[in-house]
TrEMBL record, chains A, B:
<comment type="similarity">
    <text>Belongs to the class-I pyridoxal-phosphate-dependent aminotransferase family.</text>
</comment>
<dbReference type="InterPro" id="IPR004839">
    <property type="entry name" value="Aminotransferase_I/II_large"/>
</dbReference>
<keyword id="KW-0032">Aminotransferase</keyword>
<keyword id="KW-0808">Transferase</keyword>
<feature type="domain" description="Aminotransferase class I/classII large">
    <location>
        <begin position="49"/>
        <end position="389"/>
    </location>
</feature>
<protein>
    <submittedName>
        <fullName>PLP-dependent aminotransferase family protein</fullName>
    </submittedName>
</protein>
<keyword id="KW-0663">Pyridoxal phosphate</keyword>
<dbReference type="Pfam" id="PF00155">
    <property type="entry name" value="Aminotran_1_2"/>
</dbReference>
<dbReference type="GO" id="GO:1901605">
    <property type="term" value="P:alpha-amino acid metabolic process"/>
</dbReference>
<dbReference type="GO" id="GO:0030170">
    <property type="term" value="F:pyridoxal phosphate binding"/>
</dbReference>
<comment type="subunit">
    <text>Homodimer.</text>
</comment>
<dbReference type="InterPro" id="IPR015421">
    <property type="entry name" value="PyrdxlP-dep_Trfase_major"/>
</dbReference>
<dbReference type="InterPro" id="IPR015424">
    <property type="entry name" value="PyrdxlP-dep_Trfase"/>
</dbReference>
<dbReference type="InterPro" id="IPR050859">
    <property type="entry name" value="Class-I_PLP-dep_aminotransf"/>
</dbReference>
<dbReference type="InterPro" id="IPR015422">
    <property type="entry name" value="PyrdxlP-dep_Trfase_small"/>
</dbReference>
<dbReference type="GO" id="GO:0008483">
    <property type="term" value="F:transaminase activity"/>
</dbReference>
Length: 397, 397
């Protein structure tokens, strides 16, 4: 039987699909993949930090010892020993987390999608930081909420702004540690105020924490989750502390919500790879992260220092930027009249790239901002690239 | 900072989440996991067919030779060499499929979710077979369509029923080969008629084909995809021919639709595991499936024969069942007055289980039906279990 000669379908997408557009970042990344481009645009962790040999040994061990179970369908909420391990690692003296509160996801991006699926109706109010993580805005926008932007300063979200704007909100989405895109951290004083404000107003608080372990000095600040496990939904990820390509994350939520999320995940993709979960458990179960994470911190901290120093040397007065205490990003604010998208066009012509700030705003973009990532570029190239960007900014001052 | 004493959130789910319920099958599976139960309820492939050593060698090779790339973020549409391989394997003399038509997914279940996300509005009409695959009904129901059930007989879907009921439908979801749950195959004569009917009416046809390669004799029937690549969306999976626990499937669709699906996938989980895709490519690239699939066919065919023979011997007159030409399932129809859910309760008390037919119907369930799977139970246990069920049926005649 052969191909028939039929009229092609005229595709009509759902209303929600009309909201979708390709990430501005992914479009830029395509341009910046040319090897001659010095790219500060990526959000990728450095492959230098990937424990390839450990991962290889773990996959091998799991498949050798337990291959049939690792390759069979598994439970929707995930591999129990891994969930137990995560629960233990998130528990504090006065806040015990149990495995029943945890569901494994295909990256924490999936957690965002499932949360919106289960909690957001068309027109539901979602509070977001200003600016916010682009991937979250994308995930949520499919469900057609109303985004309300909450004020932020160098100490992170301003809790009074949540109180002023949050009435009736379905969710508040926050990235309290070394935020993507700004690199900012929510101060310890504000954490309690934010948690209390959201609880008082009945607003579930999403604590997205992919970078939280990557503090350059000291220890991570207390988690919002541990301050109010009944009102905070925590998203964790192995992408930045192990490797991202395996797509493994998790969410922690009150049990009635987890059960509903589990139903949603079952309908969405049944479960996350059994093999991947077992291999990651094998890698981390004996404390590997305690030795591995400090090496990532040292590496990223040194890279960040190189970039900050180069910026101080090359960026003219009138330009300001954040000084992150961890994570992967620096946020730059130009004088109002300079449009970072136009600057990017010139930069690309000069073989250097960054991400303009506009797409990170849910409302009223500040077009004089941009994001720099320093983790995948060598110190020499950081200096060269920042010098080029500095010259282009000066020419526009 | 310690846990605060705050009022817990009163969770209110989205309207779409209220549609969600746990799969009836998953609930039954929990009961049937007791080792003394002979379970024909599962939909799991037999782990005897998993090429564990091959998978182990492939993961090892990929991580040894290309570890950093395998563990890094990857493109949303998938690993290009694997997409090229799939495109080649689906191409026929007069229907060339190109990699740009293919997107890798986290199991074909994710394909169902993404298709509904991108094509279905509340109230959109979706045509489904009678009965249909429960996982598809679940995936679609989240988006609150109107299901319209299309007639089916032993030759599969009746195309005239599509013509009669399909006006204005957004989708027709079909499982033409060894359907789950009935084991039925759409006859070769009807394939062309169905494809033409859908094209004439402008209805996109989803061809879900997880079992298509598992024909017990001869070669698979022509794919609907190859008869009309402009109007058919094809869902493929490695779950039944390799292993399910890795969660790897793919969808083939016209390029404008694939681009929109790619945006939806990006917002949903960024991409499917790079490592898994590279390892599966390593397993299959030199023709392994051509030697492996026949061994699964022989194994399942022999298991099916054992069950059919036992049924002939033990089931009383008035009970009918399908005789599958491939796949994993037999569908049983009891006299009208016997409710298969009640029969199941008695069966479980006798340590044998199956899945009652009700949940597989989008509308007007025929409660005198049930599904049997024969692939994970030994021939001795098949005989023992069927004999028990036969006795229970006779007692109710």
């Amino acid at each position: 039987m052969s191909k028939l000669n039929l009229t092609p379908i005229n595709w009509k997408f759902s209303e929600r699909a009309e909201q979708l557009q390709s990430s501005a970042i992914r479009e830029i990344l395509k341009v910046t993949m040319r090897p001659e481009v010095i790219s500060f645009a990526g959000g990728l962790p450095s492959p230098e930090t990937f424990p390839v040999d450990r991962m290889r040994a773990a996959f091998d061990k799991v498949l050798a010892e337990n291959g049939k179970a690792a390759l069979q369908y598994g439970p929707t909420d995930g591999y129990t020993p891994l969930r137990q391990f995560i629960a233990d690692s998130l528990s504090t003296a006065d806040c015990k987390i149990v495995p029943e509160q945890i569901m494994m996801t295909s990256g924490s991006q999936q957690g965002l999608d499932l949360l919106a699926k289960v909690l957001v109706d068309e027109g539901s109010k979602i509070l977001v930081e200003t600016p916010s993580y682009l991937g979250a805005l994308q995930a949520f926008s499919v469900y057609r909420p109303e985004f309300v932007s909450v004020e932020m300063d160098n100490d992170g979200v301003v809790p009074a702004s949540v109180a002023a704007k949050g009435e009736g909100a379905k969710l508040f989405y926050a990235l309290p540690n070394f935020q993507n895109p700004t690199g900012r951290t929510l101060s310890i004083e504000r954490r309690q105020e934010l948690v209390e404000t959201c609880a008082r107003m009945g607003i579930p608080l999403i604590e997205d924490n992919p970078y939280g372990d990557l503090c350059y000095s000291g220890e991570p600040l207390p988690k919002l989750l541990n301050m109010n496990p009944d009102g905070v939904i925590y998203l964790g990820s192995f992408s930045k502390i192990l490797t991202p390509g395996i797509r493994l994350g998790y969410m922690v939520a009150p049990i009635p919500l987890i059960r509903k999320l589990e139903q949603a995940k079952q309908a969405t993709d049944l479960h996350t790879s059994t093999l991947t979960q077992m291999a990651v458990y094998e890698v981390i179960k004996d404390g590997f992260l305690q030795e591995h994470i400090p090496s990532i911190r040292r590496f990223y901290s040194a890279q960040c220092d190189v970039m900050l120093e180069a910026m101080t040397k090359n960026f003219p007065e009138g330009v300001t930027w954040t000084r992150p205490l961890g994570g992967m990003f620096i946020w730059v604010t130009l004088p109002k009249h300079i449009h970072s998208k136009e600057l990017l066009d010139e930069a690309i012509a000069n073989n250097v790239a960054f991400v303009p700030g506009g797409p990170f705003y849910a409302n009223e973009a500040e077009t004089n901002t941009f994001r720099l990532s320093f983790v995948t570029v060598s110190p020499e190239k950081i200096n060269e690239g920042i010098e080029k960007i500095g010259k282009l900014i000066k020419a526009r001052m």
